[in-house]
Amino acid sequence: MRRYAGALLNAALLAAMAMLAPPQGEAQARPSIILATTTSTQDSGLLDVLVPRFEREQEIDVKVIAVGTGAALRMAATGNADAVLVHAPESERRYVESGDLVDGRLIMHNDFVIVGPPGDTAVRKAGAIGDVMRAIAERGAFISRGDESGTHTKELELWARAGINLKSLERREETGQGMGATLSVADQKRAYALTDRATYLALRKRLQLVIVFEGDPILRNLYHAYAVNGVKHPGAKAAQARAFIAFLLSPAIQRAIADFRREEFGQSLFIPDALPQPRR
After folding, report:
1. Do 105 and 226 fall within a single domain?
2. How far apart are CA 115 and CA 193, in angstroms?
3. HEC per residue, 197-262
């Protein structure tokens, strides 16, 4: 009887171990991260190039959540992301100071441009960004993302600098959507919009909108990557997030960012900021 009971116990233990172990020939699940990022990195197609390469080289899967920068930062603050790639430095600073974001690095930049209907003359004649915003306020409709994104934050800054109260803008509408959708609405309504250059160029073939103002230093658009603080948010996969940031900063990926769709558009959609500068 004892030998029989022992045999039953051993069989039960083996069965339990078999349930816990992965099936034979099946690999254990790879590590993964959630990347909360702005829609411009998604709409431009950049992440379609970078993410598969990271997954292949680092054997870490990435789930991309493309939302406005405000929503991406809130995901970090609630521990619902592991890494963020965003473009609203003033908004980012609050989350760095609160300890939600760590290991921030400047990855790349491009610029914002103001687009509008092809028949525009008034805005094109304006010589400075304040004059541009005042001309739009007086004569044209404006379509805003209205989603607390980096683009929306910059837009609000431009109205404020021009001394324009939003309540006075009867023809300003908010979509509450990403950049691509907002450009489509502006195109349909022959209205003006603020957009990052990369998304506009990526979608230009399907739009009537043209660039009516560009080049002011205030329109510079900086993209930073951060890891979510694993001390404050124990569930955050900080090590894998740091690996993703290191990947973005590597010379090979910085060159890939510089080359991304440059031949297609005759210019870089994003300018890398971590490439070693040549000695003079």
Report:
1. yes
2. 5
3. HHHHHHHHHHCCCEEEECCCHHHEEEEEEEEECCCCCCCCCHHHHHHHHHHHHCHHHHHHHHHCCH
Per-residue pLDDT of 105-154, as tens digits, reads: 999 999 999 999 998 877 888 889 999 999 999 988 999 999 999 999 99
CB under 8 Å to 127, separation ≥6 — which residues?
Answer: none
Structural domain of 116: 111-219
Concatenate the DSSP letters of all residues of 8-66 into one string: HHHHHHHHHHHHHSPPTTPPPPPPEEEEEE-HHHHHTSHHHHHHHHHHHHH--EEEEEE
Copy the structure tokens of residue 117. Answer: 């209907």
CB 112 within 8 A of CB 194: yes
Whether 30 shows a pLDDT value over 80: the answer reads yes
pLDDT at 21: 47
80 domain residue, yes or no: yes
Return the CATH number at 194: 3.40.190.10
| 25 occurs within a structural domain | no
pTM of the model: 0.83
72 found inside a domain: yes
Tokens of 57: 């080289």
CA distance 11 to 9: 5
Residue 101 placed within a domain: yes
Share of residues in the chain with pLDDT > 90 (%):
81
Residue 275 is predicted with a pLDDT of 77
